[in-house]
Write a structure and sequence with these properties.
- 37% of the residues lie in helices and 14% in strands.
- It is α/β, with parallel strands linked by helices and 249 residues long.
- β5, α7 and β6 form a beta-alpha-beta unit.
- The longest helix is centred in the C-terminal third of the chain and has 21 residues, at 181-201.
- It is globular and about 50 Å long.
Length: 249
């Protein structure tokens, strides 16, 4: 596997301003590296969702479009259909993708739109102050659930990859994490595979990335990584979830 130590040219020469221990800065660098490796920087277009994720266009020197809450897959669909040679991806948080945007994502998959969807799952609604998200697991305390999610009262967390795989639509679906060196390396590889997949197979690719949020988990960065490894991956196992139709398409 290629190891890159120099700062990618796609990253603007400004410091990240995310909270200490946040995974967004790691993920921004990985995406920038992979886009450069693939040689698609001149035809890559990102669609930023709402939440902390929309800050991505501050840091990557790419063409970006903003989308209303949850609508990034639909905006990406329009961009891809208008320019079929473009590499179009969305960059969304779990609240944006699994809350207001779940319908848009499901129907983009059923239409087999040739886009890549990156969903950063940090199990909380970061930009609004750490409120509960559709992906908040049981037991994790948030500002709006001071006793943690209680399934009998609040429902169960949404397992996005499993839900999307249940559609039976040909697509690439995977969940990765940013907790260990090995998992970061796997995430980098999966980013490349997910960006290539729509071009090579005319299908949607979904990559869910488990990411720490020390500030709103009320943990140190070290403890947040430990929670991600020991607890969050228990709710959200790391795996490929690809499915094919019954016809074997």
């Amino acid at each position: 596997m290629m190891t890159q130590t120099n700062r990618p040219g796609l990253l603007r020469p400004i410091p990240f301003h995310y909270c200490t221990g946040c995974g967004h800065s790691i993920l921004h660098r990985l995406i920038a590296e992979v886009i450069e490796d693939l040689g698609v920087k001149d035809r890559a277009v990102g669609v930023a969702g709402v939440g902390c994720s929309f800050l991505m266009y501050d840091f990557l020197d790419l063409d970006f479009a903003s989308a209303p809450p949850g609508r990034a897959p639909s905006v990406a669909t329009g961009l891809k259909r208008a320019n079929t040679t473009a590499t179009v991806f969305t960059y969304q948080g779990d609240t944006d993708a699994m809350g207001a945007g779940l319908t848009d994502l499901v129907h983009a998959a059923t239409r087999q739109e040739r886009i890549t969807v990156f969903v950063v799952n940090n199990a909380t609604t970061g930009l609004s102050g750490g409120h509960v998200s559709p992906a908040t697991p049981t037991g994790l305390v948030t500002r709006t659930m001071p006793k943690g999610r209680i399934p009998s009262l609040d429902g169960h967390p949404v397992r996005l990859c499993e839900l999307m795989a249940s559609l039976g639509i040909p697509s690439r679906i995977e969940r990765v994490a940013l907790d260990t060196k090995e998992n970061v390396a796997r995430t980098r590889q999966a980013i490349g595979e997910s960006l290539r997949h729509p071009l090579e197979h005319s299908e949607l690719a979904l990559l869910e990335i488990l990411s720490p949020c020390p500030t709103h988990w009320n943990m140190s960065p070290e403890a947040a990584l430990g929670y991600l490894s020991s607890e969050l991956t228990r709710f959200y196992p790391l795996a490929r979830f690809d499915r094919k139709t019954e016809e074997g398409a």
